[in-house]
Write a structure and sequence with these properties.
By secondary structure, the protein is an all-alpha fold. The chain has four helices and no strands. It is 60% helix and 0% strand. Helix 3 (35-55) packs across helix 4 (69-78).
Length: 84
């Protein structure tokens, strides 16, 4: 899930029973009042995580965009996926 809104990520994680890593929670808190910087940070973090997954051989990626597809599109471009 691309990081575009701290509250949405926290709700989604709580509902799914997943913990947000402390390092990520702490880093995100620095962007609480700056949505544009939060999205840029989130794109960088999720791009890096996806790169690691792909290097480990995962067969594909699935994104929950929650109707905020812009960050996901940027992540896909960063990963070198071409648009269809």
């Amino acid at each position: 899930m691309p990081i575009t809104n701290i509250e949405s990520l926290q709700r989604f994680s709580a509902k799914d029973g997943a913990d947000i890593p402390r390092w990520l929670e702490k880093s995100m808190s620095g962007y609480a009042e700056d949505e544009k910087s939060l999205v840029a940070f989130g794109v960088d973090v999720v791009t890096e995580l996806c790169e690691k997954l792909l290097q480990m051989g995962v067969p594909g990626l699935h994104f929950y965009t929650l109707n905020r597809w812009g960050a996901t599109s940027q992540i896909c471009r960063n990963l070198g996926f071409r648009e269809i």
